[in-house]
Design goal:
single chain; 188 residues; alpha/beta; Rossmann fold; seven-stranded mixed β-sheet; 7 strands; binds guanosine-3'-monophosphate-5'-diphosphate; binds magnesium ion
Length: 188
């Protein structure tokens, strides 16, 4: 399994206080990989990452005196293969739900993705992301608002291309994840 980000050094004590797996879900081509790479690397469409087929990334988020190390899992195109997805969700502490603002079907499918994640992970913190905000949107704002209030979700518009809000979903989830970890385990 290939990996990008800080490496674990067993000789040294870890530089983080908490660690959590986070999954990024949504239809194929909504920009999940692009968002993760933008967040972790600060770039858009770097050919070498696509070529390597990285399976997961790590990124640290510091909040006050705590540092959360995210293990961000990326799908290698398993979006269409149900049985493979189950393994992908296992142990996830949070989920970023992504749709493409220019693709109505990808928005309508968010409901499906929520149910699937909850079926494996139970009720974990989730955030809704409308990606490709640099393009002309097709999904209507009132439909998004209606959906987010029904599901009690925070909503953020991003562009992996321009970098707009690319850190925000992960940043906003971090305190919720830390809180959950502290209430259930010792944080590791
Ligand atoms: P996925 O991981 O959800 O399947 P990808 O999606 O990250 O592979 O992105 C799918 C396509 O959408 C890619 O285009 C990518 O460059 C493009 N994309 C991702 N995010 C954005 C964005 O914010 N704005 C715009 N304009 N395009 C985006 P290609 O052409 O490489 O298939
Ligand atoms: Mg991808």
């Amino acid at each position: 399994m290939s990996h990008y980000g800080p490496t674990e050094d067993s000789e040294q004590s870890p530089t983080y206080t908490h660690r959590a797996k986070i999954v990024v879900v949504g239809d194929a081509a909504v920009g999940k990989t692009s968002l993760i790479v933008r967040y972790v690397k600060g770039v858009f469409n770097p050919g070498y990452i696509i070529t390597l087929g990285v399976n997961f990334f790590t990124q640290d988020v510091s909040i006050q005196d705590k540092t959360l190390r995210y293990i961000i899992w990326d799908t290698a195109g398993q979006e269409r293969f149900g049985p493979v997805r189950k393994k992908y969700y296992l142990g996830a502490r949070a989920a970023v739900l992504v749709f493409d603002l220019t693709n109505l079907q990808s928005f309508e499918n968010v409901d499906f993705w929520i149910k699937e994640v909850e079926g494996i992970c139970g009720e974990i913190p989730m955030i809704l992301v409308g990606n490709k905000a640099d393009l002309k949107p097709v999904v209507k704002q009132d439909a998004i608002q209606d959906f987010t209030s029904r599901h009690n979700l925070t909503y953020i518009e991003t562009s992996a291309k321009t970098g707009m809000n690319s850190i925000r979903p992960f940043f906003l989830l971090a305190p919720l994840v830390i809180e959950e970890l502290e209430s259930t385990t010792d944080g590791r």
